[in-house]
């Protein structure tokens, strides 16, 4: 495993296991399988509705809690100082831990400032080891970093070969914020796993396209979250620390960048409307 050190000195595994869209009834076993495969970094969220299953697996696996790095994210409907604090305590109960390694604000909407103050207080109280944001574009990251006491340690954003976040990462480096990738495989959109450039590089190394993508992210110093419900794929995804991409191969992948999200643009009013609807759809589940 490779690691990064956040601006506050916290050590974070560069490769993690994400549980987005893993059903509650499957999640505990998937996390146990991932632990068996070697993962120690797990990323969940209040809006994934599987924090409890992640906590169950980690508590049952027999490995000390301090060997794991656990991330959760505060859902938009829990924003605001008081609601955020309360929701994080509930997340701790579900995750069966007194301290969460990283807590992020999941989306750049609603009362981000009130919520961020709650993160700062819990961080200073030792209940959170690192704090940050998710899906914050460069201007919003600059804003929240400039006008709060503690700069975000992490910004988790969509990062993959077709949306490489080059300028966004430069902005994060400038502010000492660690970039973390969700959807490193773009959920297979745009035939990513069949991309001829990625496929040729994979064949050269005797690796899969997924392994090449993760290796590319590691060499860009991007923390990545891989996800699978199949243990053999979990093992394959973590088997990326025995090869290096050449400078030429890194340049070829750089040329794939479209600079466009494969999902949605957080800076459009339509995206805000989409999340408002999502809040209403999920309100009774949180």
TrEMBL record:
Keywords: NADP, Oxidoreductase. The keyword Oxidoreductase applies. The active site is at 48 (proton donor). It comes from Dielma fastidiosa. PANTHER family: 2,5-DIKETO-D-GLUCONIC ACID REDUCTASE (PTHR43827), NADP-DEPENDENT OXIDOREDUCTASE DOMAIN-CONTAINING PROTEIN (PTHR43827:SF3). Substrate binds at residue 106. This is Aldo/keto reductase. The record marks 73 as: Lowers pKa of active site Tyr. One of its GO terms (molecular function) is oxidoreductase activity, acting on the CH-OH group of donors, NAD or NADP as acceptor. PROSITE patterns: ALDOKETO_REDUCTASE_1, ALDOKETO_REDUCTASE_2, ALDOKETO_REDUCTASE_3. The keyword Transmembrane does not apply. InterPro entries: AKR (IPR020471), Aldo/ket_reductase_CS (IPR018170), NAD(P)_OxRdtase_dom_sf (IPR036812), NADP_OxRdtase_dom (IPR023210). It holds the Pfam family Aldo_ket_red. Belongs to the aldo/keto reductase family. Residues 16-256 form the NADP-dependent oxidoreductase domain.
């Amino acid at each position: 495993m490779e690691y990064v050190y956040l601006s506050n000195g916290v050590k974070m595994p560069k490769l993690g296991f994400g549980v987005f869209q893993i059903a509650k009834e499957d999640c505990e076993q998937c996390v146990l399988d991932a632990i068996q495969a070697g993962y120690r970094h797990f990323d969940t969220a209040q809006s994934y509705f599987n924090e409890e299953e992640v906590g169950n697996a980690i508590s049952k696996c027999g490995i000390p809690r301090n060997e794991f790095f656990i991330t959760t994210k505060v859902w938009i409907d829990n924003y605001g100082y008081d609601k955020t604090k309360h929701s994080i305590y509930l997340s701790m109960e579900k995750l069966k831990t007194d301290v969460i390694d990283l807590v992020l604000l999941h989306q750049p909407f609603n009362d981000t400032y009130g919520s961020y103050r709650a993160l700062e207080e819990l961080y200073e109280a030792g209940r959170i080891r690192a704090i940050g944001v998710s899906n914050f574009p460069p201007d919003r990251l600059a804003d929240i970093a400039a006008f709060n006491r503690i700069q975000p340690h992490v910004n988790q954003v969509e990062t993959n070969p077709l949306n490489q976040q080059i300028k966004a990462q430069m902005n994060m480096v400038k502010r000492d914020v660690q970039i973390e990738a969700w959807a490193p495989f773009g959920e297979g959109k745009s035939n990513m796993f069949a991309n001829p450039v990625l496929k040729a590089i994979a064949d050269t190394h005797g690796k899969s396209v997924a392994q090449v993508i993760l290796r590319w992210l590691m060499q860009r110093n991007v923390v990545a979250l891989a996800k699978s419900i199949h243990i053999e794929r979990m093992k394959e995804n973590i088997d990326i620390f025995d090869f290096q991409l050449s400078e030429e191969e890194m340049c070829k992948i750089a040329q794939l960048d479209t600079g466009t999200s494969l999902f949605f643009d957080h800076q459009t009013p339509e995206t805000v409307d989409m999340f408002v609807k999502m809040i209403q759809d999920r309100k009774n589940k949180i």
